[in-house]
Amino acid sequence: ADMRSRAEVDATLQTAKLNPAELLPAVQCISFGPQAGSGECCLLQLEPGLCADLEAGRSLVIRGEKDEHAVLCSKDKTYDMKIADTSNMLLFIPDCKTPEELNADPASCNIIHSQIAGFSKNYWELRRCRPKLKKLRKLLMEDPYEGPDSQKDQTSTFSKYTTEDLLSLIQASEEEILHQLQVIDACKIEGYWRILDFDYEMKLLNHVTQLIDSESWPLSKVPLSVCLEELGSLEPREMIEHILLSYGRKYVDDGEVFFDMHEDKICRAIAQMLLQNAVKFNLSEFEEVWQQSVPEGMTTRLDQLQGLALVDKSSRPETIFLLKVEDLPEDNQERFNSLFGIRQKWTEVDITPYIQDLCAEKQTVGALLTKYARSSMLNGVKVYNSRRPIS
């Protein structure tokens, strides 16, 4: 390309009836460079926080297997990636000067020749999203840990997962994954993350609650050292400690480690054990058996079972059955389809524990219901049903 001279530029300005005095003295002549046609450029729009992360030398990672929609993760947040088309062609000019830069440097009152290195008609737009963590539990549940004596563990053909494996398979940031491993009470065994088989977990919990009972300890002050000493011959010490961590809060008092046991969580686990052996349970019978089954001094309450079990008030007598929120689909629409398949009409109180986890930042359950359900009045109570026919 031939380079334009100042005279040619002035002639063009005159033809365009533009007054050079009103313009900046410098002129940028832009031409396509030899590589510009390949268009091998991707643009990513970043919010200030992510930009600061990159500038500080931290990495952003794109995660997702071949059949999954890509997400971008920082250390602690997850973003959906969507292509946004622009009506304007975006040009990349490496040494382009902005008006501010030209103003600051009055000496640059001449012709600057710049080459276009590439162009794009779209860019990646990031939208903060909920980490896709359901798969984490699913992967670990392929092969739950049944204890050190389990023959199955020696012969199992299932994959086991390290932190690295999970980081490459789960569409969530490292902090969100590590937090979720805590939420689902996963533990590291020989370097691999595992979830305890429910029956094995109950066996461990039972050892601990029986010991608490026989020693008459207050539930708020269970000593780690005595638990390990007394139960270490029955189960691995790290399993005893894991179950205390899962069902209690660890604290140190006068140099000794104690656990304050979570009453609600223990009652909930025992309810799950009772409910998983029956399709439906007569509610009043269940409440009686449940209270008899929990450790001395604990009080069972139905609100301990939110997101675990559902009471059917319309049946006579009333019944209760297991319905675990973690078994429901992760996608919003699929979740609602699934819930309306289980029950046609829901009260807000009943459905809330089953959709609470779908709320995005600052979103309320009410807003979700408005979007995915329609409301009506039934005997003076507001109920919600599906917006679409359920097949």
UniProtKB/TrEMBL annotation:
The regions listed as transmembrane in this protein's record are none
Keywords attached to this Swiss-Prot or TrEMBL record, sorted alphabetically, are: DNA replication
Gene Ontology cellular component list: chromatin; chromosome, centromeric region; Ctf18 RFC-like complex
Question: Highest taxon of the source?
Answer: Eukaryota
Q: Which GO terms describe its biological process?
A: DNA replication; maintenance of mitotic sister chromatid cohesion
By sequence similarity, the record places it as follows: Belongs to the DCC1 family.
Q: What is this protein called?
A: Sister chromatid cohesion protein DCC1
Query: Which species is this UniProt entry from?
Result: Leiothrix lutea
Q: Which gene encodes it?
A: Dscc1
